[in-house]
Each structure stands twice: as C-alpha cells, then as structure tokens.
Specification:
It comes from Ganoderma sinense ZZ0214-1. This is N-acetyltransferase domain-containing protein. The chain is of the alpha+beta class and 245 residues long. The protein has one domain: Gcn5-related N-acetyltransferase (GNAT) (Aminopeptidase). The protein has six helices and nine strands; from the N terminus they run E-E-E-H-H-H-E-E-H-E-H-E-H-E-E. Strands 1-2-3-4-5-6-7-9-8 form a nine-stranded mixed sheet, with helices on both faces. The protein is globular, with a radius of gyration of 18 Å. Coenzyme A (COA) binds next to strand 6, helix 5 and helix 6.
C-alpha cells in the first residue's frame, strides 16, 4: 500500500503495511491503529479490570473470550472497509481532495516499544451521538433519527466519543493526547466533525477531566439511575460539549 493523499495524515508501518496515526511529542511512542484479532487477550484483561469496567455501560460482564472476538471482528470489518474505501479513492480520484469517511480506519491506541513491538493500550470510538442520557423514548428516537439522517459532512451532526485505556497507563496524559490528535488530525478534517457531545458517569472524575482539558464545556448533570452489566448502579451522567471554532 503506498502512502497517498486520501490516507492523509496516516502513516504506514514499513514492515506490516498497517496504517497508523502518530501522536506528537512527548507521546511519539503512542500510535492509533486499526484493531487486530490478536488484541483479544488484552481487551479481556481491560474489560475485567474494575478501574475500567466500573465506568463503562456497554461491555458485557463478565467479559468472555467470545465477547472480545465478536467485538473485534465487528470493528475490524468497519476499519477494513474504511481502509478499502481510501485505497479505492486513491485509485479512482487521485487528484481530488481527501474524501470524508463516516468510519475511521484507526481507533486502537498502542505503545510502540524500543524493539519495534507494540502494546495494546485502549480504544477511541467515534460515532454519531446516541443520547444515552435521554429518558423520554419518543424524544430520543426523534433526535437520533434527525442526527442519523444528516449527510456526512453536515456541520450539524453531533458526534460522540467512547474510550478506555489500560489502567497500567492511566494518569500520564495519554488519553487526552490521543483524543486531541484524533479530533484535530482525523475527525475534523476527514470526518467533517464540528460538534461533539459526551457523557461520563457523574463519579468518573478522570474522564470528565480529560474532556475538560480538551476544551469541552460542562453542560449539565442528568439524574439517571441505571444498573450496569457489572451490577453497579449509577445515579447520574455529566454531559459535556465541544464545538469546532
Ligand atoms: C478516563 C480515562 C480514559 C483517562 O485516561 P488517562 O490517559 O488516564 O487520562 P489523562 O492522563 O489524559 O487525564 C486524566 C486526568 O484526570 C485526572 N483524574 C484521574 N482520576 C481522577 C479522580 N478520581 N479525581 C479527579 N481527577 C482525576 C488526572 O489527574 C488527569 O488530570 P490532570 O492531567 O489535570 O492531572 C481512563 O482513566 C480510563 O480508561 N478509565 C476507564 C474507562 C473510562 O472511564 N472511559 C471513559 C468513559 S466516559
């Protein structure tokens, strides 16, 4: 695979040909790549770690090998399709400006070691907003449909971020740097993202802090009682918003 404009600003691993998004200094050893089926054991480890599952709503609990396999094959299909779309755009529209994509070709955060090997650290999911804080089913359906119906590139689309990082690497600024790079190097120029809305459980001070460091504005706390798959009950969600300047 050759490096060319529709992949911009992705780089390619010279040995494997895998595309990646590089973080700037001082995080030069952190990259964002597509998922690999071999990530399953690391994902199971993270999803079995209370420092992580305590703050996530979606993942099954207990998190079994088949859950990791299903999730990985689903998100790998999405990133594979995005890579194929970019490859075709390079062939068919070599002189046109880079196309917009709904799905990102990269999302998995990895630490590159001195010997060139890398370590799975976490995930950044970027999707159209799902409004998990809206209790009114009818209103939620209307808002979801309106957001889904907008054409890619429409500045009115509201996007959302889901993320986690291996607890061995918490508190080093990695997620803040990774999301910052993802927003400004990929989501804004290559997905046309102009608005982002995120929800964090009200007791997830670390995640809220990440988004505040990224310039998100705290909007409200919604009192919403939910029992997570892990059995924990949460009482509220903080909503934070970001708009491109
Ligand atoms: C949230 C998460 C992604 C943050 O990743 P990270 O790389 O550790 O984040 P950063 O180091 O960039 O920033 C974390 C900030 O939160 C702060 N923080 C962490 N825990 C905190 C706590 N309990 N109270 C107050 N601040 C806290 C850190 O001090 C840091 O802020 P600082 O730079 O001002 O000191 C990671 O903790 C994680 O994976 N958590 C579990 C899953 C999760 O919560 N996902 C998000 C769902 S909304």
């Amino acid at each position: 695979m050759s490096k060319s404009s529709h992949f911009h600003p992705l780089e390619f691993n010279p040995t494997t040909g895998e595309p990646f998004l590089a973080l700037p200094a001082p995080y030069e050893n952190i990259i964002i790549t597509p998922p690999r089926l071999s990530d399953a054991p690391a994902i199971i480890l993270s999803m079995s770690d209370p420092a992580i599952y305590t703050f996530l709503e979606g993942p099954p609990f207990p998190y079994l090998p088949e859950h990791a396999d299903q999730w990985l094959s689903r998100i790998k299909q999405e990133t594979d399709a995005a890579i194929e779309t970019l490859r075709r755009a390079n062939e068919e529209k070599p002189d046109e400006p880079p196309i917009f994509l709904e799905q990102s070709p990269v999302r998995i955060i990895r630490e590159v070691r001195d010997d060139g090997s890398d370590l799975f650290l976490g995930d950044i999911m970027f999707v159209r907003e799902r409004y998990p804080d809206l209790d009114d089913k009818e209103l939620k359906e209307t808002v979801l449909q309106r957001n889904a119906a907008r054409d890619l590139g429409d500045p009115e689309i509201v996007w959302c971020i889901g993320d986690f990082l291996a607890s061995s690497h918490h508190g080093k600024g990695i997620m803040t740097a990774a999301i910052k790079t993802f927003i400004y190097e990929w989501a804004v120029p290559r997905m046309g993202v102009r608005q982002i809305r995120v929800e964090t459980f009200s007791d997830n001070a670390g995640s809220r802090r990440v988004f505040e460091k990224l310039g998100f504005t705290y909007e409200k706390t919604v009192a919403i009682r939910k029992t997570l798959n892990s059995g924990r009950t949460i009482d509220g969600m903080d909503v934070l918003c970001w708009e491109a300047k």
